[in-house]
Amino acid sequence: MLEPKMSVLILCGGGPAPGINAVISTVAKVFLEDGYRVIGIHEGFKGLFSEEPKLKEFDFFHADRIFSRGGSTLIMSRFKPNNEVLNTSIFKDNNVKLLVTIGGDDTASTANRISQYLKKEAIFISNIHVPKTIDNDLPLPDRNPTFGFHSAKDEGVKIGNTVYEDARTSQNWFVMSAMGRSAGHLAFGIAASCHFPMTVIPEMFAKTEITIDKVVRLIVSSIIKRKLKNIHYGVAMVSEGIFHNLKKSELDKIGINFTYDSHGHPELGNVSKSHILNVLVQDQLKKIGLVIKTRPSELGYELRCCRPIGFDLTLCTLLGIGVKKLFDQGKSGCLVSANSKGEISPLYLKELQDKEGKIKPRLVEIDSEFAHLFFQNLHYIKESDYKDLKGYHIIPEAYDFNKILIE
Predict the structure, then answer these.
(1) Are residues 15 and 140 in the same domain?
(2) Active site residue 34
(3) From the candidates 135, 137, 385, 400, which is the catalytic residue?
(4) Residue 403: what pLDDT?
């Protein structure tokens, strides 16, 4: 009996990011051109551990049709195998030679473990991972961006500019929240592009503990400062990472019963962070006798499946071609990486991990000149404003931007 045609299996893990389809399309095209079958598996790793996996066979026309679309043609899943049994027949029956995974570092490490397990079962495959996250918090060399970040930021800027125009037109304030569990890249990038007068990201709190009270006072500081400047509108951007960095006692103060994921993180996708903050800001404004209308605005899931912009289409195409290059070189168990010159090289998880085997997220460089210049030009109360606040029923120091961040 003839051995079936060699194939490549593509799997997507985690959440969506603009450019996934561009990676899938490119990988499919370059391997189809070389005579391979290209198969996609739905539902991420859940599909590999299913007795009835849902497979998608790619041809050129399907690959060509999807490359610039948002979302993912392959259904995604955050499933992480525990004691489930791997369906090895997927690999044997389809003569899989390469497993291509698209996702975060958990997806990459799981793929490595699967390939090692298959090796013990005398099934030899290569596995190459394409890293993605709109949070831009993976510490890639040369601070290269993760694919999807720039497209998500671009979509966020479109929405942010519209919200800011609404604030100006109606003369009120918006409290906006943007995704980013560990780092504030998305919130920072959107706010900087939209000229928002206040931005609050976790990295700002290097010298003090994050509390809800401090976050609210930073927002109110900007509102008061603009009032002094006779500007009665604005948008305050807050990264959802603020909530991830709060102690549980701080979360309890909010009065919402958060659910928690398997890693102990509050599942913030279930609640509106902007709504929570907006209510607290309103309460704070009432306490100091200011009648100012504020509204919540959430930037969340609508950023993940937008159409990728040209930057990400180029990057994802390069990474997809890079998968083929590394496979042809005999590389396995690695991430595909492209530097600023467009040169492809393998990147191994151990190169990103610390001594404890953990990957520390790449944060906004809060001490960079860009960050310093940006924060210097926000609107907030500082010591030179104290004399102008004599008519307000507040303690000026409580809303001093610089003092709040060293309390």
Answers:
(1) yes
(2) no
(3) 135
(4) 97
